[in-house]
Amino acid sequence: MNVAVGSKNRAKLLAVERIASDMGMNVFVHPVPSGVSPQPLSDNETKEGALNRARGALQHPKCSIGIGLEGGVDKLENQWFVCNWGALVDAGGIEIVSSGARFLLPKAVCCELVKGKELSTVMDEFAGKKNIGQSEGAVGIFTNGLVTRSEMYEHLVKILFGQYLFYKKRF
Ligand SMILES: O=P(O)(O)OP(=O)(O)OP(=O)(O)OC[C@H]1O[C@@H](n2cnc3c(O)ncnc32)[C@H](O)[C@@H]1O
Ligand SMILES: [Mg+2]
Prior knowledge:
Layout lengths: L1 E4 L4 H13 L3 E4 L13 H15 L7 E12 L2 E12 L4 E5 L3 E2 L2 H8 L4 H9 L9 H6 L6 H22 L1
Parallel strand pairs: 1-2, 1-3
Antiparallel strand pairs: 3-4, 4-5, 4-6
Helix pairs in contact: 1-6
Bound molecules: inosine 5'-triphosphate and magnesium ion.
The site of inosine 5'-triphosphate has 17 residues, from β3, β4, α4 and α5.
């Protein structure tokens, strides 16, 4: 079975490749627009971005499954958390959506986001590195390297495929 991923971000691709290859599936890169702002500022917007990307990826002519992964931030009781959402859609009309890990952002970083900057830009400035969003991610920086962005998405992709298998068997 062939799976298309709606992004060329390395952290996202690596996550899907690891899980899909364990399941004997081939992965195709099919970058599509998220249809939401570059830095989603709520769970709703992030979730919508993931679903848009999954539906867009499904348009790949060789694939019968589309995967969309989206990072964003969400405000809970006056604190900003990074949130992650994923979607898996298939040619038969099944659509699975799930959130992944969330973690607290320091105030200095959130201030820049609400001014309109993207988290990847703020993180590169904050850590003095380049392309953090494609490698360890904000999660890597704020967990001292214990959890990487790719690992975080791996867990989310496992939930998506696991739920997909469950619903396919059941309904
Ligand atoms: O749009 P693509 O090319 O898929 O890759 P991206 O890195 O821009 O990914 P998103 O649009 O899904 O993420 C929104 C922003 O959050 C940033 N980000 C960085 N580290 C993150 C992390 O650990 N978790 C979630 N988002 C993160 C990311 O780089 C973006 O600026
Ligand atoms: Mg993006």
